[in-house]
Amino acid sequence: MKNSTIELLSKDLNHQGGVFCPSEKADMTLWNSHPKVYLDVGHTGQAKCPYCGTLYQLKEGEHFHGH
User: Fold this and answer.
1) Within a domain: 19
2) Coil vs helix vs strand at 31
3) pLDDT single digits (tens) 6-44
4) Rg of the chain over CA atoms, in angstroms?
5) Per the structure, how many domains does the chain have?
6) Please, is 58 exposed, middle or buried when counting C-beta atoms within 10 Å of its C-beta (0-12, 13-18, 19+)?
7) What pTM was estimated for this model as a whole?
8) Range of the domain at 17
9) Residue 30 falls inside a structural domain
10) Of 42, 48, 67, which is closest to residue 5 (Cα–Cα)?
């Protein structure tokens, strides 16, 4: 799997500001992927998966406002 960057909108994050990897947004299929891991993107604007190296980041101009 190659490292890639996935740009997210604030609406793509869950109510805590996170996403899970593997993700459909990263075009990953579950049968050939790593264990599911939670990544906190909302508080820092980005997070990198420790398994596959995919970087999830908020698109420029997007801001997360927790609920």
Assistant:
1) yes
2) helix
3) 999 999 999 999 999 998 887 776 656 789 999 999 999
4) 11
5) 1
6) buried
7) 0.84
8) 5-58
9) yes
10) 48
Q: What pLDDT score does 1 carry?
A: 47
The residue that leads in pLDDT, 41 or 3, is 41
Is 66 among the domain residues? no
Q: Give the model's pLDDT for residue 32.
A: 64
Is 29 inside any structural domain? yes
* 3-state secondary structure labels for all residues of the chain: CCCCEEEECHHHCCCCCEEEECCHHHCCCHHHCCCCEEEECCCCCEEECCCCCCEEEECCCCCCCCC
**pLDDT greater than 90 at residue 63:** no
Q: What is the chain's length?
A: 67
In the chain the beta strands, taken as DSSP E runs, fall at 5-8, 18-21, 37-40, 46-48, 55-58
